[in-house]
Here is the input.
Amino acid sequence: MKYCVIFLLFGTIPAQEINLLFDYGNQAFINGQYGDAIHSFETILDRGWENGDLYYNLGNAYFRSHEIGQAIWAYNKGIELFPRDIDLLQNLDIVNSRILDRLALPEPFFLLRLYRELKYTFTIQEFVLLGSLLLFLEALLFMNFQFAWIRNIVVRKFIGILAIVAMVVHGIALDKFIQQKNAHQGIIIDNGVEAYSGPFYGENTVLFRINEGTVADLRQSQEGWVEIILIDGKTGWIPTDTMRPL
Amino acid sequence: MRLCNHFILVFAIFTPAWALQVTASVDRSRCTINDLITFKIEAEDASSFPTAEIQALSKDFSIISGPSQQTNMQWINGTMTNSRTMTWSIAPKREGNLRIPSLTVKVGRKVFKTKPLQIQVVSSDQSNNDLNVFIIAEIDKDEAFLGEQITLTYKLYKQANVSIEPFQLPEFTGFWAEELYRPRQVSFKNVSRSGVRYQVGTLYQVALFPIPGDKYVIPSLMVQSKIVSKRSKRRRDPFFDPFFDTFFTETVTKVIHSPEKEITIKPYPDYRPFDFTGAVGQFTIDASTDRDSTNVNEGLTYTINLKGTGNMGLFTLPDIKFPNQLEAFSPTEKFKKDVFRDALTGTMSWEYILIPRLAGSVAIPPVKISYFDPQSETWKRIKTDAVTIPILPGREALVMGSGFSKREVELLGRDIRFIHTETTQWKRINAPAASLWILSIYGMAILFFFAPPLVGRVLGYRVQTAADRQVRGALKKACRNLKAGAGDPFDVASSTVYEYLQDRLQLATHNLYPAMAEELLSKYLAKNELITILDHLKTCDAGRFGPDGVDRESTIIDETIILLKTLDREIGK
Here is the structure.
């Protein structure tokens, strides 16, 4: 915990170098040197820094060099950080329309859809921040009530509602957290990737062929291979380098 | 005699009719594999040369030369015999009992069948190495992948004065052959082979690329050579001086074969890329357009160049998906070969004519191609850069929008939005979800929850809570109620007293009546005071429900206030 605090204090000051790399990448993008732009943006990621704008620009650079899969990966990473960024959503929409494979699921029940929309509108940090503020307000009111500084019946009801809302918010945050911890997803970054029935070439048959940009759940991995599950339930093994984990 | 004359006449008329006969013959029925056989088809009394389907022999024999035509005319005893002969030089392809099949021969309009002939071919009594002339087929590798280049060189080794005739190239079944070197005049140089000096010359060099098939055999090259050997001296005759022998040399015609060689085809390693179209070798690819920008409906040329070494010409480009705004015409394919190389090297180029139909920027996606590198035995993928060409609106487009009517904004294409050049805050990848700020807010919330009991514990006394405040505020509240009381004064007084008691004594119930109040207050009050209170309550009730006590109506409020104050003092003790 102590290290964590130190890390939080000192870790949040990025080196000047990161900003320079970012500016360099932007300039390269403007000049049309998308390869250089990708290189400098990826270097920032390698140094361990991220930012929604960085992912957005990286996605644009990948899109311009026609690497749809990588672009989708970058935009998805960006949306994890900036879930309400209109530019990100619009670009992801455009890139998604370039995916060759069409995997569609039936429309879920509308409450579930609403819940999902709510869940994906905020980041886990925002949920936690909101939850903590609600809890803080709740505690403040509760204390006032204990000390009997406020005796309004409306306030008493409000405390009850606030408790429920705070619990719901924390529940969503927990749901998101568990989802992030458990569900590993990846984006296919190569075209015509053949999924085999086992993690080696041998006698395994090719089960299906997927193209770049498709989102797949990752189940387990073997040396150089990873087992993927597509959203329609198809399962197969693909070489690890044809996929980039989210 | 007359009869005889008649006979002759009859003969003279009829002889040509049945004297026309065709025979096939060979000069020897037993030979070695290096020998030449002369095959003749002779037609007697024919007016034209016979024609035969000589290709029927090509199963076991190779035709070295021919046909040569020969006409014989003989007068014997006044009868003329006339024969026309076609002669071929053929060489056996293998050892064993070979058969020249029955041939169909046409002479004029007549059709004949020859008899089949048997030829016994024995192995040469000398092995190749002992010969003073032989051919070696040199290959640079015994096993290859499909599409990998095998360089085959036929080399002629000779010791004696040997001249070679023009030769026919064998058929390379199972391979795609690309000629690398074929000299007009074979030049020889001296080499030493197993200690023996030879002159060696390259007859033919070819690049072979195995194509899918079932048999991969380097065929044997067959060359007819004339070996000049000195005539052996048979006679020791002063007139036939050995000096003359040098001018009269004997030539022996021999057919020399190169040994056949088998090639093993190695299978490709697994995980063959989906876009593998058969390219094997080492390649680089690039793409270019002939201009940087163009106008609508003005064509441009998009060229893909594939440079490298390998089986060029045996594979195609994967299909290119051009954007919809471009109209693409099927490409023209060119191959430029680099000469003077052992390996087939060159540049293949595909030229597409593209005509843009809409203004705006158009991007041609990268062209990717996979190939197999036989040197590292790995699959490789190369791709061109994406090419972006701005397309300016053509002249026609400008004329169109002259009307004044308002229109919807024309949506010409969808594209991603521009990058964000300003950024906010950098974040460590995998930073914990809860930052210091959030954790401190949680801490404060927990602190506030447990603040009241905690403060009491720390400071050593019970902190005022809501109940305490209620108790303390009971008298004040009651007085306020009484003073502000509206309606029946007895009613107000009565309910205020009960309410005061509830607050002051922290009672749960809302239904108080005099008997219950007496029981509660007996703990706090002396007897007479208790009676005063109860009397007062009874007076109030009486005033509420009956006509009694109307006289006290004006004073009941004040009395109640005084009473409550005493009561509060007593309970406080």
Summary: Confidence is low (pLDDT under 50) at residues 1-11 of chain A. The CA atoms of residues 81 and 123 of chain A lie 6 Å apart.
